[in-house]
Amino acid sequence: MDIELGITNVARPVSFSTNDDADTVTAAIESALADGTPIKLTDDKGRRVLVPAQALGYALIGSETKHAVGFGAL
User: Fold this and answer.
1) In this structure, is residue 68 part of a structural domain?
2) In whole numbers, what is the pLDDT of the chain averaged over residues?
3) What's a Gene Ontology MF term here (predicted)?
4) Is the Cα dihedral 16, 22, 23, 26 positive or negative?
5) pTM surpassing 0.85?
6) For 50-73, how does the pLDDT look when each residue is reduced to its tens digit (9 = 90+)?
7) Domain boundaries, position 44
8) How far apart, in whole angstroms, are the C-alpha atoms of residue 19 and residue 15?
9) What is the 8-class DSSP label of residue 29?
10) Which residue has the higher pLDDT, 68 or 26?
């Protein structure tokens, strides 16, 4: 699933893919915003992404479906 996080006062968003489902990502973001703690997510390569909750401008959580790539038969 693709995630895009907009950070206040930063021109470019933080974009990455994760193996977590949409509910897990949403719960992590909502919990961090409510508690005022950093948003902690892990990308699909095992790297940790930490964003201060106060700096979050927006979050786009992509679909969980995998899209086919290439010209193969369906």
Assistant:
1) no
2) 89
3) ATP binding
4) positive
5) no
6) 999 999 999 999 876 666 666 666
7) 2-61
8) 14
9) H
10) 26
Token pair 């508690």 is found at 35
* Residue 25, token pair as written in the block: 């990502």
C-alpha torsion 10→12→13→18, nearest 10: -130
> Is 73 a member of any domain?
no
**Does residue 53 lie within any of the structural domains?**
yes
Amino acid identity of residue 24, one-letter, is T
The secondary structure of the chain as a DSSP string is -EEEEEETT-SS-EEEE-SS-HHHHHHHHHHHHHHTPPEEEE-TTS-EEEE-GGGEEEEEE--SSPPP-SS---
